[in-house]
């Protein structure tokens, strides 16, 4: 795609749920980016959202239809914030309108549909990425880089778990039609962390607990890798986990404080000493992926090294395997 020549990257947000509000709040913190439009299936919801993020410099266009948002000529890139059961259709709508897209995680419900979106964006020459904001977190990036540089020695074990008690009023967590799954909503974080450190596994063994409506609410998996490394990951939407992550080798151990996917600090224990590291995190943490997308658009890049499509598909393949072992199906 051609580089975006305007001094400001102009964003549209598709859907007006909680994550959209968090994203909009962080967007206001990133210089050279601004919210110019929002789309909802409800005109009233779009109008209320636009009024909340109105600034004296620019009004936010309120569209009561996703197609109208996708067609808005003032929008450079759309952040898709709908429930993940809708991601494939909503992201495709934006791509067909010629818009760059940052789509909230998980990209879709399975590898096949994720690959289809990625291929379509490539065919059209449009920027496209999954909004796995943890990948852009400066402390996560620093901890992984430190491990790859040998700070822990030969890496033998990665551990990561994430859990919380899901709000019963958050439909996407409990409604199968919206893609309800603790694995897709929560487990994707520890699995992505393991992938950042160790890459794609040779084998996966998983188990979990199912809701009466046919989706998983808790689970865990052991992943094994070439060379003998092991990752132990767990996730839940029905319990308050300790939300920690670690990378351990034959020289030392990196530990990321809870909640690890937000990455506010980490420690390296090696040689009898413990050193703490902490890079500033802007806002809730979404600002870093916003800045990355903006840099790609200005450079004319259709993919991001920080939010790579290959990484999205690799994690999705693991989640497909885990879903198969748990017996979760969306067909």
Automatic annotation (TrEMBL):
<feature type="domain" description="Gfo/Idh/MocA-like oxidoreductase N-terminal">
    <location>
        <begin position="9"/>
        <end position="127"/>
    </location>
</feature>
<dbReference type="GO" id="GO:0016491">
    <property type="term" value="F:oxidoreductase activity"/>
</dbReference>
<dbReference type="InterPro" id="IPR000683">
    <property type="entry name" value="Gfo/Idh/MocA-like_OxRdtase_N"/>
</dbReference>
<dbReference type="InterPro" id="IPR055170">
    <property type="entry name" value="GFO_IDH_MocA-like_dom"/>
</dbReference>
<feature type="domain" description="GFO/IDH/MocA-like oxidoreductase">
    <location>
        <begin position="141"/>
        <end position="255"/>
    </location>
</feature>
<dbReference type="Pfam" id="PF01408">
    <property type="entry name" value="GFO_IDH_MocA"/>
</dbReference>
<comment type="similarity">
    <text>Belongs to the Gfo/Idh/MocA family.</text>
</comment>
<dbReference type="Pfam" id="PF22725">
    <property type="entry name" value="GFO_IDH_MocA_C3"/>
</dbReference>
<dbReference type="InterPro" id="IPR036291">
    <property type="entry name" value="NAD(P)-bd_dom_sf"/>
</dbReference>
<protein>
    <submittedName>
        <fullName>Gfo/Idh/MocA family oxidoreductase</fullName>
    </submittedName>
</protein>
<keyword id="KW-0560">Oxidoreductase</keyword>
<dbReference type="GO" id="GO:0000166">
    <property type="term" value="F:nucleotide binding"/>
</dbReference>
<dbReference type="InterPro" id="IPR050984">
    <property type="entry name" value="Gfo/Idh/MocA_domain"/>
</dbReference>
